[in-house]
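Homework-ish question, so no full write-ups if that breaks the rules, but can someone show me the predicted structure for this set?
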Amino acid sequence: MTSSLRPFFAPKGVALIGASDNPSKLSHGILKNMVSYGYQGAVYPVNPKSTRILGLTCYPDIRQVPDPVDLAVIIIPAPLVPDALEACGERGIRAAIIISGGFKEVGPEGADLEKHCLEIARKHYMRLIGPNCVGTLDLYTGLNTTFIQGVPARGGISFVSQSGAVGGGVIDYLRDKGVGFSAFASLGNEADVTETDLIEYFAVDPNTRVITAYVESIRDGQRFLHVAREVTRYKPIVMLKAGRTEAGARAVSSHTGSLAGANEAYHAAFVQSGVIEAQTVAELFEIAVALDTQPLPQGRRIALITNAGGPAALASDSLAAHGLTLATLSATTRQTLREHLNPAAQVDNPVDMLGGAEPQDYAFALTHTLQDPNVDAVFTILVPQALVNPAEVAQRIVQTAQAQADKPVLACFMGEYSVGQAREVLHHGRIPMYTFPESAGYVLEAMANYAQWRQKSLLTPQRPQDCQPQEVKRLLKAQGERLVWGEFETRPILDAYGIPLIPGDLARSSQEAVQIAERLGYPVVLKIVSPHILHKSDVGGIRLNLNNAEDVRAAFSEMMAHIRARLPQAELVGALVEPMAPQGYEVIIGMRRDPNFGPLMMFGLGGIYVELFRDVSFRIAPLTRGDALQMINETHAGRLLAGFRGQPEADLDALVDILLRFSHLAVDFPALQEAEINPLLVRPKGQGALVLDCRIVLDENKNYNNP
Amino acid sequence: MTSSLRPFFAPKGVALIGASDNPSKLSHGILKNMVSYGYQGAVYPVNPKSTRILGLTCYPDIRQVPDPVDLAVIIIPAPLVPDALEACGERGIRAAIIISGGFKEVGPEGADLEKHCLEIARKHYMRLIGPNCVGTLDLYTGLNTTFIQGVPARGGISFVSQSGAVGGGVIDYLRDKGVGFSAFASLGNEADVTETDLIEYFAVDPNTRVITAYVESIRDGQRFLHVAREVTRYKPIVMLKAGRTEAGARAVSSHTGSLAGANEAYHAAFVQSGVIEAQTVAELFEIAVALDTQPLPQGRRIALITNAGGPAALASDSLAAHGLTLATLSATTRQTLREHLNPAAQVDNPVDMLGGAEPQDYAFALTHTLQDPNVDAVFTILVPQALVNPAEVAQRIVQTAQAQADKPVLACFMGEYSVGQAREVLHHGRIPMYTFPESAGYVLEAMANYAQWRQKSLLTPQRPQDCQPQEVKRLLKAQGERLVWGEFETRPILDAYGIPLIPGDLARSSQEAVQIAERLGYPVVLKIVSPHILHKSDVGGIRLNLNNAEDVRAAFSEMMAHIRARLPQAELVGALVEPMAPQGYEVIIGMRRDPNFGPLMMFGLGGIYVELFRDVSFRIAPLTRGDALQMINETHAGRLLAGFRGQPEADLDALVDILLRFSHLAVDFPALQEAEINPLLVRPKGQGALVLDCRIVLDENKNYNNP
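A: Not a homework solution, just the prediction itself:
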């Protein structure tokens, strides 16, 4: 089946509604672009005021445009757009790009107009790009519905942008930089077609080898996750997310709430779906061009070949900063290089052939480093020298890389004036070229990470058999209107999902407290239970280390009296009696429901350190076992639990199991807005883990009686 | 007095020893450069094999070159260089640039040759640049002793490079990028003239407004610190340090040793001397051009003016990531903008004038944001739009900025093709132009940091009056040959510098232990004292929480017996008896002597966290009070000590005082190779701080009997 989005890039015929014969109008620029880049389909200007524009017959109305026409590009005042769309629908056109602004971005009236347009489109089974966008571009069909001046080179990169300006700026910048595009689309307000729709389209576009995107927000996060996880199995996606700064503080009632922002959700989504996250516009395309043109590396051992030490030092720093290593060249390679290169050359990695290095020296060193089994990728560096022609070096690098196409070869030719011709040669030879050596780190890291992602098996998270959603449902129903639940009320919820709790029971009197303590064994802890007290220790609602019946009795009475005096209005249900916690590591496990991505899970070191060091990691639920392990390993806490500096190794299996169960609980009950186990006590290996305290916050807008 | 380095940039006459008439030789390229960029002095080729080169009289010998000649550029085979230098000296030339390689960089023989050259130079009071360098360039005198093709634009940036290749690559890249240079020097092997010499020279060069440097190593770190601290009071220095990756592990016997690498020393030196540290080559010059052309900001509140939202979002992210804030525009500014701009424009910061923004809109918005007292700097963004001429916008930005020259104005014109003319306009109008919005963060942060540095008073660290260096000298002498000193031996050293210790005394028998314990008060701690035991807890050499005489007696005997059985060869002196430590924060204070910069001080959170989180900061001793406070505030530990989340505030005054005393100890006694107080217990405000454990390592090569 052909995608419904195909007409946006490869229509049989395109009509421009609002075409103008005035060269100072944007619509004139669009028409010019439509006929200037080799597009072979029909182009129909539509405008009742003209009869011919740019030598083309101009039609007064879209209904009168002859076949073939399967795409309408609309650039007329916003209030006129609904009628035009209606006419397109009647004419049988199933794809429209609304360039015009004046919709959602200008206020509520515009938003209504936009909604109206979408209704018309839906009625006619029509897909919409825009409104308020700069159109589409396909470097293979030659279609150009934008008013951007000029087009980039042809290649394998498709670019989806939620900002038309960023798209235009990038195209203007990259036109002659040796970065090849397959297609471009600007999304505008995304009334209909979203970044995820286009990722799906480019995933099967034969001309696209790498999908890049600039996004400011992803509305349907779960669908994005699902699609991106599939696509990245065979085609890389590189994305730049803008708006990483958190705007204002959110009202939160847990550590998780204060630490888990929107940015953490995006980052987690990218990691979990194999999407490569770029940090800057420049990085986005530096990474993409390498993925477009080069094979993936099998590992992180990089060889540097250079004609100068300084740039190689900068490249080495950047490799180390990005978790890559300088490959240790084999003795054979070093000896071969020693025998053939300048005797003063440095043949350990970085291979520094010194200023006089000739094109054949580059070819020789590249051949032998590529053949070295200790090398996963080669980064070649050239600084222009008076007596060596960079273009000839480029030519030899291209030839050598093509002869041994199994490992990636990248080039840094530092400069501009002296390396323009070399840039051309490298571009046509499909070797990515960078201006500065610092690119080595983030480009090769992205390639290595993506290669690793492709190797990873993607298991579907499965809810453990012994989880009891019916019981949780019952508990949630039973509690009535309360939104914030303390430890006492939350414990049975966790228990129903098989999450182990420290033993404990509710005592309503000092006598009951003693009975429970005798049953559990001393020493014990008392914790106040009250629907009106969330921060127990703040009100003196925790008594530790009670060693006998007398202590328990006294502590119970004393605590109740103390709190009753301090908070006369609070309903005091009683006290939880629990044994003192055994030895172990305190960690925090949390969940906050992200508006775009759903349940965002957090893991980190407990106690005061969680906020002091922000030593936390995030993933979107449900988690696979691999996700849970990665979450732990991403934090410093992970190193501690693994047995740092002679400390005992923690029971990671138990921790992972609890993370998985907690993530299923979050997925199964959308009424849970926030949930937190803090602390979870992780005991030494083989001894399990125990919830020491916990809470949940319910969403007031969710009918949690019917989750 | 004229600097002895002046002839390297402004000689009256220059001789090129080794000039060739063969255009394929480097020396021919140099001669061509010497006469191609407007240099007004005399140029003399020297070569016995030619009589005329490039129309200039060629002399067979430097001795025969007529006046004026005060600079020799030497490019002949290395073994011939000493004779040529000798001849230059006899001719009365006091400055020579040795371009030729074949010296220290090729091995011991070359190093001897280099040393010989330096001796000849010293004999003749001659200054040397090189050998193995690419020469010098002065954009104001027109002198060009390099073989680099082309020169950059003229401006206020001088560039010193320890890599000729990086220098050449940068010049090739920046030639037409609107970045103006005053001078360039490549340093090669630095036989004589170093980066610090040139910093001193450019500090008084009237054409240089910003000094930039690429360095791989700074040999005389203390001199660099001294010079850079002075220079940065009135002229900014921006540096890029390569080789940040630590090569191999060092043998270390303390936490400080394992955490305080060479890179930490460089970073500390830059911070303490007001040097701006760039992370990449591109950053180095993006920062420099802003400092060259713009006034310094008074704060960190930035206004963004843009014609598109996406790039402004990227700029905002980058500002936030670099500790800058989006200025809150005054109500007046917002109202004025609202009245005059496109009604759909966003007049809160970022000021988004939308795609149709005209040159006069930029001028208007820039005028009013610059006038707003809430704004410290303005970053203007333009994305090329079909109907607006970027060069005209540039022109208006230049005019507006010049009319209100007190706050910095920067520009990001995103693209290349459509903004080439605008780039020219901005360059001539002295407005720095960037291609991508992400530059906003690091450029403005560097400017704001530097402005703050200039405001800072630079006090000279003073040793507190009650420090007793004579006593430390006596103690060091008394200890004989031991290099690693444990707590017992180190305590009197710290005491002599007024650093407060937890009370304690040496017990040689269980009876003495009890006597000391009775005097100190229970509970107490026993710690083994042995010259052969460094890690006391590893051998069971610490006994905590001893509550009475019986416990002390038993613990002493038991500990001695246990250790004697385990380490029969160890000499057991006895045990330190100390009271149990009171409540407080455990921190670590350390010192490692860096080979280039001297005593490198470390501060961090104690316990297991120091290595888990690497939550440490570094400065070079001696410290000022400001340095010490900054060290503390740079770490997460600093937040903890300040009273994080309801924890008690720590006695920061006591901590600072101990840091200062410890830093003077390190400066006064070069025999101290490493020293560490770990933990130092910092008590709540007003209650002081106490050394709980400490050690020092002496330098085996230092005569520590005569420090």
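Now go work out the reasoning yourself. Hint: Chain B touches chain A through 75 residues (CB under 8 Å).
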